[in-house]
Design goal:
Length: 200
């Protein structure tokens, strides 16, 4: 009997530690997992997702933490890395979402790009900045819009090119009224000019 009691005394602390570690190990193993997006709600103050984890485990209302200054709404079917806070699967958050279907490939070392599923991209490349889109580009500013270049500036359009403003100045210190095709000429001197377009 004494031998049996001694054996129990020795094994009990070990069993208790193993049981505690087993529960802890399970929570640690469940802390991080891969998921697939099933739905996206972009109306809340923090975007929430419906995700499908391994073994057909689905969770709804999972918060998606996006970096400050960058907002995006991923497509259903995109992949995510989900983290269970405190190892509790009921308190999952998504840290990042990627979509291998549309990922921009063949970047050079050090390059950075913004892109989408429509073939639009903004590339901070090794040779400069490139913007490509099959769509329209619009720039809206309540204040001034300035373009400065140390080299040449080229504007080319396949269709009509319109420059409109309250006053259009061509050349630094422009003040002379630009002559128009229909302006009158008297004695070899143009006597008219544009009230809107000024040249230097």
């Amino acid at each position: 009997l004494i031998k049996k009691l001694k054996a129990i005394d020795v094994q009990s602390p070990t069993k208790m530690v193993n049981d505690a570690l087993k529960a802890l190990r399970g929570r640690v193993q469940m802390m991080v997992g891969r998921a697939v997006l099933a739905a996206v709600n972009d109306d809340a103050t923090l975007q929430t997702l419906q995700i499908e984890l391994a073994s057909d485990e689905a969770q709804d209302g999972v918060e998606h933490f996006q970096p400050y200054g960058l907002a995006y709404k991923p497509h259903v079917g995109a992949e995510a890395i989900a983290m269970a806070v405190g190892g509790l699967r009921s308190h999952a958050v998504v840290l990042t979402v990627t979509d291998r279907r549309y990922r921009l490939k063949a970047l050079k070392d050090g390059e950075v790009a913004l892109y989408d599923d429509q073939g639009q991209k903004l590339l901070l490349g090794r040779d400069g900045i490139l913007i490509e889109t099959p769509k329209d580009i619009s720039i809206q500013a309540e204040g001034d819009f300035n373009v400065e270049a140390g080299g040449a500036v080229s504007i080319k359009g396949g269709g009509e090119t319109l420059i409109d403003g309250a006053s259009i100045l061509i050349g630094e210190g422009a003040s002379l009224a630009a002559a128009r095709k229909s302006d009158a000429v008297a004695g070899g001197v143009i006597t008219g000019g544009s009230s809107k377009v000024k040249i230097a």
